[in-house]
Amino acid sequence: MQEEMVEVFLLGKKYTVPSELTIMDAMEYAGYKLVRGCGCRSGFCGGCAVVYRMKGSHELKVCLSCQTKIEAGMCVGKIESYPINKKTFDIEEIKPTENIMGQLYPEIYSCIGCNACTKGCPQGLNVMQYIAYAQRGDYEKCAHASFDCVGCNICASRCPAQISHSAVGLLARRLTGKYLAPQSEHLNKRVSEIEKGDCEKMLEQLMQKPLAEMKELYNNREIEK
Amino acid sequence: MLTAEMLKSMANVEKTRSARMNVTPARMSAEEKDTLLQEYHPDYRQSGFTVLSVGPNKGSKVPTELAELLQANSRIKSDEIDLDRIDYDVDVLIIGGGGAGTSAAIEADKAGAKVLLVTKLKMGEANTMMAEGGIQAADKENDSPAIHYLDALGGGHYSNKPELLKRLVHDGPLAIKWLNDLGVMFDKDEKGVMVTTHGGGTSRKRMHAAADYTGAEIMRVLRDEAVNRGITTIDYAPAIELILDENGKAAGAVLMNYDTGEYLVAKGKTVIIATGGAGRLHYQGFPTSNHYGATADGLVLGYRVGAELIYADAIQYHPTGVAYPAQIFGALVTEKVRSLGAMLINSEGEAFMHPLETRDVAAASIIRECTTRGKGVPALDGSAVWLDTPMIEMIHGAGTIEKRLPGMLRMYGKFGIDLRKEPILVYPTLHYQNGGILINEQAGTKIENLFVAGEAVGGIHGTNRLMGNSLLDIIVFGRIAGKSAAQKSKETQLGKLTLSHIDKFQAELAAAGIHTDKVSPLLLPTYTHGRKVR
Which candidate, A50, A82, A80, A56, places its Cα nearest to that of A68? Predict the structure, then answer.
């Protein structure tokens, strides 16, 4: 099959690359050996954000380079390392009842509602909305609305209020996971059984059995429907 | 664009779907599974392996691409680095910034040790971040660590190291509790009951998840906690050689600043290898679901100082890697898709196996369908089979995919495929190294003061790991390694630092007649995507 080739501009230089490739692959096809700006290559680590314009267009776009197909006329620049303002805290000390978000990240109240964060999000999250939840102290809603964040920080790169959105979402999620979500009684019960040594005893009994009996047990074990 | 042939076959899948809904294909017997594996699993293809000529596993076979790196030259000469000029001096040096390394760092810090974590890429750019489906732990009423043990033992072909497997399953619920209390948002119902599913080879629904971002959710919480604790981390600083002291104890590593190429010396009273897997070595030409830096560096570093490997020839091919479209070729389609009911279907619309056999059996079964049975669908690079994703919402209702598989929905959506409406094409992808460096219950190795955690470890899973036992092992053994290394550092006085093992290994290579210009660890693969390079 004859590959369709397209002309693109990578870090200001013109290259001709197969149209099937992602932006990241196109960089490699052009001869770059990537070290920075290339992590999981599957859209989960948020490490490969790039910025681009289509040649002749005023519009500046942002995306994850491993999850975006190259197109003719793309003029691609890199973000690689975008500093954010992550505040440190002791998860055992903070409480979701106080305005901990406002104390750590008061800049969230400077949001001017421009929605540039949401427009830039490669995950399609409603970023401005989750910041609004954070402003109101509704951490659980903020946690769920920000859940699919991969921390690429494209939002932060575009925010005139200089908010570090990914850090805000992460704090809301940790507060939710630890304090706001209901406790799992079955988990706590099992943990106390383990601490009493009950599970260890059962394991040791099983482990003493000869291999043939183990195989028998495995092959005939009941499988939960 | 899907080809006409793909569309024709997809019509077969749609045609048989309603008739398949209430029929679960039978599971294979133990004998059927054994025969299938021997005939079709890539681990049984002798041409893919090389017998090692030097080192602690001399005489054992490992994948050829790994053998070339294990038996390669160091990147440095032993006298090239001034070991008196120490850049970092710590109690616990951790090599690797994924889930295992970061768990270890948190526990070592908690135990009062001075910790340095170095990582080749950025902290969190690791396979942990990409683990989608879930984490096993026996914390439900109808389950127990003993049942979990039996599932993993049978799945691992009875070759798991008993004492390691015992630790894994016993500490499983403790790991979930630890993560929950750090603020990981597990899927729970309104009463707090964990939403759990099956994985391939489980007999109880013990797969805990955070949508299909389970690993990402765990990793970003661990990373945040490490930052909160003020643990020193250096990104883009791969270890390129371990340092021993004059008595043979692990005593640090030579690092490379990947931005500048400069070498750095990190002295550590104890060292933890947590460098992960090897998917980027592309054994037998397979694509991989692994992150960019999965090049077996830790195995190479450990092997050169004399640490023993176990089951390094047992590789996990995840049954469902993306076979189409090209842009995400080889990426992972989480097993959770099958946990939620999607079936594997051949070109003629037949469900050819139970969707929740163990990974090695499922991979071999797909390869059989695409080869001798001739019922594969021609895709990008060879044949593939369908994973019938629309079944999920027929079983669990509309909205299930968006809620429980948002990552998958998004990944395919970016390339114009809606997996709620159409099935997807899959083929096995190189996913996990079942083996690695042999450890004991304290995560220690034959080399004093050298600990290992995470995918670089061998023995826990035998020759085939079950879904969800890897996220569990990085937490359980990451924490153990961190505690053990911190404790050991308190009792350790290091002697003079040396790199003399490089010369010793070089002499062994020469004696075995191996002359190569290869250097290792590899650090990163080189891709040109078909362009010929001068």
Answer: A50
